[in-house]
Amino acid sequence: MKVTKGGTVSGLLKEVPIPRMFHAKQTFPRPVIRPEEIPDAVAAELSKPEIETRIKPGMEIVITASSRGIRNVDTITKAIVDFVKAKGAQPFIVPAMGSHGGATAEGQLEVLESYHITEETMGCPIRSSMEVVELGYSERGKRVVIDKNAYGADGIIVSCRLKPHNAFRGDYESGPCKMMTVGLGKQAGASMVHGDGMDVIALNIPTMAKVVLEKAPVLFAIPCIENAYDETCLIEAIPAENILEREPELLRYAFENMPKLLPGECDVLVVDEIGKNYSGTGVDPNITGTFSTEYATGGIRVQRTCFLNLSPESHGNALGTGLASAITRKIFDDMDVEKMYPNCITSTVLASARIPCVVADDKEAIQICVKTCNKIDPDHVRIVRIANSLHIDKIMLSEEYYEDVKAGRYPGLEALDEPKELEFDRSGNLVTPVGSE
Fold first, then answer.
1. Could you tell me if 117 and 155 are in contact, meaning their C-beta atoms sit under 8 angstroms apart?
2. What is d(CA 82, CA 77) in angstroms, rounded to the nearest whole number?
3. In degrees rounded to 5, what are phi and psi of residue 272?
4. Which of 168, 244, 269, 328 could form a disulfide with 295 if both were Cys (CB 3.0 to 4.6 A apart)?
C-alpha cells in the first residue's frame, strides 16, 4: 500500500486541531491474588479432597496452556505442573489455542514461548500438534474432536482464564467449556464450534463440551479470573462433573470485576497499542465498544476509533484492525496475514481482518478520526486515549471532560494534572505517555 507522508491526505488533515488533554486515574474494586501468592493459591485449590484424589502416582497428565495474554499464566501453569509432580504423576503441556499461532504446531509453540512457557521454564515436556481425535457428535449434530496428545493421556487438567467473550453472549463464553471445545479442538474443533455463526456459538460450546466431558479423561478445570487492573483475583479448581454448573456462576463474577471507561461515551477513542496479548480482536470490545458481530454489546459509546501500534507479542497477528476507523502505517507494515487469516477463516468472522483507513503516523490517525466525526462541536471534541484495553486505570481525556471530572461527575475518575498539548516527534508519533509521570 502506498501511504505518502506529506501527500494529499496529509494536506487535508494538517490543520485539524487536536484538543489539549489531561491525565486521569480510574479506580475500581480490587480483589487480588498477588503473584507471590499464586503458587500457594493453586496448591490450596488442588489440595481440595475432591480434586487431589484424582491425581494418582504414575498417571500421565496433560495441562492446557492457551494463547491469550493471561496475567501470571506462566506462574499458574508452573504451579500446576509442580503439584502434579509432587503427587507422583507425570505432567506435560499442550497448547490449547484452536487455530491461533497460524494454525501450526510450530506457531503455537512460539506463542507459548512468548509467555515464558517452555520445557525449560516449566520443567516438563510440551507436546504441540494439530492432530485431533474424533469423540462423537453433540446433541446439535456437531462433530466433536480433541487434541490427540491430550486424548491419549490418563487425565486432562483444563487450565484457562474465564472472562466475557468479545463477540457473543451466553451462559458459557470464554472459559473451561470453550477451552475444551475450541482450544483443545485445535483448528478442526474451533472451526466446528464457530461454523454455524456467532449467533449460535453459545449453544455449541456447552453441548459440545458435554461430549468432551463424557468421552475424554478430563479430571477438573482450574480457571483464573482477573480484576479491573488485569491482576489475578480468583483461582478455582472445579471437578469435571461440576464444570457445566459452576462456569456460568463464575462468568457473572468475571463480569462484575471487568473495568470500563468511566466517561461512558466519547467522539474519538485512541488506542496506543493493540495485540493478541490484550484480546483476540486486538482490543477488548467489552471496553472499547468495537464489536465484530451484532451478538454482543457493551463498552464505551464511540463514533471513531484509531489504533496506533501492534504489540511485538502478536507476531504480526493484527486481527482486530478492521474494527478501527483508522490505523497507522506502522501497524499495516507489521501485519502478517498468514497469522491473521487462519483465525478469521476458522471463526467465520471476517470483519476483524478488514483494512480501515491507513495514515502516515499517530497524529494523522487522530486527526482523521476528529475530522470525520459527524454532528460534533469541533471546538469541544471528546477524546479518550488508552494505552491498551487491558490497562485502563490510567487514561488521558480531552479538555472537554476536565471541569466535569473536577466536579466529580464521574465517580471513580480523578484528574491527575491540567490539560496540555499532546507532544509528537518529528515522525508524527506520540511522545506524551498515557500514564502520568
1. no
2. 9
3. -65, -40
4. 168
Residue 241 DSSP class: G
The model's pTM is 0.86
* Rounded-to-integer distance, Cα 294 and Cα 355, Å: 19
Q: What is the mean pLDDT of each run of 10 residues along the chain (437 residues)?
A: 93 96 97 98 98 98 87 96 98 93 90 94 97 97 97 98 91 96 94 89 96 98 96 98 98 95 97 90 92 89 98 90 96 93 86 95 98 94 96 97 97 97 97 83
Q: For the CA atoms of 299, 300, 301, 304, what is the dihedral angle to 10 degrees?
A: -110
Closest CA to 406 of 422, 420, 395, 417: 417
CB 128 within 8 A of CB 67: no
- Grid coordinates given for 337: 496475514
Between helix 186-194 and helix 337-347 the angle, nearest 10°, is 50
C-alpha cell at 14: 494538517
E strand or H helix at 260: none
Asked if 402 and 415 touch (Cβ cutoff 8 Å), the reply is yes
145/246 Cα distance (integer angstroms): 23
Q: Which three cell numbers mark 375?
A: 454532528
Between strands 301-310 and 265-274, the pairing is parallel
Q: Please give the grid coordinates belonging to residue 367.
A: 486527526
Helix-helix angle 73-86:38-46, to 10 degrees: 40
> Per DSSP, which regions of 332-432 are E strands?
357-359, 383-386, 394-398, 413-415
* The three three-digit cell numbers of residue 206, written as one number: 456447552
Helix, strand, coil percentages (3-state) for the chain, rounded to 5, are 35, 20, 45
H-helix or E-strand spanning residue 245: helix 243-256
Asked if residue 281 lies in contact with residue 299, where contact means CB atoms within 8 angstroms, the answer is: no
Residue type, 280: G
Query: In this structure, what are the phi and psi dihedrals at residue 341, rounded to the nearest 5 degrees?
Result: -70, -35
